[in-house]
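User: quick one, fold this
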Amino acid sequence: MTRAATLPQGTDGGTGGDHSRRQLLTGIALLVVGQWILSLLDATGKTLTQQGLPVVAVAWVRYLGHVVAIFLLIGPARWQRLSRPAAPRLHWLRGALMLASTLVFFSVLKLMPLATATALNFCAPLIVVALSPWLLGERPGLHARWTRWIGVGIGFAGMLVVVRPGGELDAFGVALGLLSALLFALLQMLTRRIAAHDAPMTTLIQSGVTGAALTTLLVPFFWFEAVPTALQCALLISAGLTGSLGHYFVIRAFQYADASFLSPFLYLQIFSATVVGYFAFGHLPDWTTALGIAVICAGGVCVAGGEPLLRRIATRLGR
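Assistant:
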């Protein structure tokens, strides 16, 4: 875990605290903007797949648009410099996982509301905690273990409330949602390993290139049954733009603030997914689902932000 960034305690007339505060607030703002853009991407994917467009074809356009948009955003010189990864095999594996996660999540969106699907996907950090001792070799201290596993338990309970076995949600959709969370968790763990070798922008470029290459191989078998309408073409193009810009803003956010500081704010995407889902599809979670989503968020925040709090309490107690 990286050291938690905290807001400065008060202002003492110096400029250092104000500058640090501005950086942290900038990081939060960039993250929130990125999350809203990614929620628009999810709404676009849900719209297109529900209208019968093949998931693979939608993903193909999304990744091609991702590559083009990032190329135009950073320019040829930076593209050439940043598109040479130090660990290419890991990037290809990560790109394949990201593509699989995209395909599964778009399939989930066909079967359940946007906010519910997003909430299930946010079980991924809980899965990371459960698997990281074996797959990443992470052995946190006692306080961190307690906090993380309490968070996992809370998040799992929230997931059960959302799913409500035997309830109204499509059972196949729930299974796909949990598979999507598992793939996303594996993607996060692999991203941690890659971060030791390459810059975040290199990872962003390589994920787009890998996704575009793999979907180009697959798309002939999942081509559009009819020529997309003008509106569908516009939505397909927007998927590439929102996918690249959303991830770009999130990466920029983590350049202004530590991951441990920003991690609890990641759960704000469930709010953006709820708002976008309401305006795009008229979906609002019922009270029970909303309670389950809140419990998942509480578990995730406990995992992400509880460790520094416990460390400060232990320090105050002299342990």
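User: anything notable?
Assistant: The chain has twelve helices and no strands.
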